[in-house]
Amino acid sequence: MKPRATVATETDRAADRATGPIGDGGSGDSRGGDSNGTAGGRGSGRKPSARPDRTPPAAGGITWRLRLRRDRTLILMTLPAIALLLIFNYIPLLGNIVAFQDYDVYDLGITGSPFVGFDNFTRIFADYRFWQVLINTLVIFLTQLLLFFPIPIAIALLLNTIMSARVRAWVQAVVYLPHFFSWVLVVTVFQQMFGGAGLVAQWMRDHGHEGFDLMTNASFFKFLVTAQAVWKDAGWGVIVFLAALAAVNTDLYEAAAVDGAGRWRRMWHVTLPALRPVIALLLVLRVGSALNLDFEQILLQRDQVGPGASEILDTYIWWTGIKTGDFGYAAAAGIFKGLFSVAMVLGANKVAHMLGEQGVYSKK
């Protein structure tokens, strides 16, 4: 009979052989042994590896180092764009501190100008002229939204019905060409056409009628800038909507035709529902830029119709803030404009979610 200490020692050794080394997965039956691990335990006598564990894989099954190594070419390609975004978009945000200062650009600078808190914002809200300009900006925006936004959709639907690819490409190129023109050229073309000495006025005088000058008509100004925007930028929207129409499954049109749907029915029940997500997205983005009208377009025609009809928020900030040297006032107005635009985007996106569309971002 063995002593009790000897029996305990052999029992511990048997348990160690059944458990197996850590490097073998912690199981003594990995090599086909029984549940006690007598056979499998004796067959796996390797020592655990002394090397440290590797970095645990990410959720997708690959480590972040391998991701960087795999995507290093794409990352290097995006670095210039990220650098430009930081230099021209995010670093200048630090200059918004002048909105809270009595900023002196010539002597004191940003570091030496005294802080005045929200005095510049108080001046904005107390300025009746600022609210008049804000209302005028929103009126011009609503005019462009109602008269300009549907036109690219209508042109895209019209081009989509043209069977000849050559004719469709030619019309699309003609409509898109003015997008590359500067606002100086666009305003000059409209001046030569609808000015007091323009072609239309001269033709009316030659036929015994009184001429007109739309370029100096203050009451017609919002429609004039809308017509200029349509002529210049409608082609850009057409390309976006044609791209959305190209993704529509043609089997839907064939199925609708088999069911007896005519051209208008197919457009109403197939084409327009396919365009709804794109329309909702562009509409949200358009509403977000309600206060961001074309500064150059308005400034070129400001003196012809007067600031009462043509003044928008950007030109007002430029005139009362930057041109007179009141940079604190201009910066405060710019911050107000940015916050207003963010609120408009969130509100329009909420409406898009209520209508069942995704908008700028999806609702979780």
- CA-based shape: globular
Order of helices and strands: HHHHHHHHHHHHHHHHHHH
Fraction of helical residues: 55-70%
- Say what oligomer this is: single chain
Beginning-to-end CA distance, first to last residue? 74 Å
Summarize the biggest pleated sheet.
Answer: none
> From the helix content, strand content and strand pairing, which structural class follows?
mainly alpha
Number of strands: 0
Tally of separate helices: 19
- What is the mean predicted local confidence, pLDDT? 80
Give your account of this protein's structure.
The chain has 364 residues and is an all-alpha fold. Helix 7 packs across helix 12, helix 9 packs antiparallel against helix 12 and helix 14 runs antiparallel to helix 19. The termini are far apart. Helices cover 65% and strands 0% of the residues.
Topology of this structure?
Layout: H1 4-19, H2 38-43, H3 64-70, H4 72-90, H5 109-112, H6 119-126, H7 128-147, H8 150-160, H9 165-176, H10 183-194, H11 199-206, H12 221-246, H13 250-258, H14 263-288, H15 295-300, H16 302-305, H17 307-310, H18 313-322, H19 327-354
Helix pairs in contact: 6-19, 7-12, 8-12, 9-12, 12-14, 13-14, 14-19, 18-19
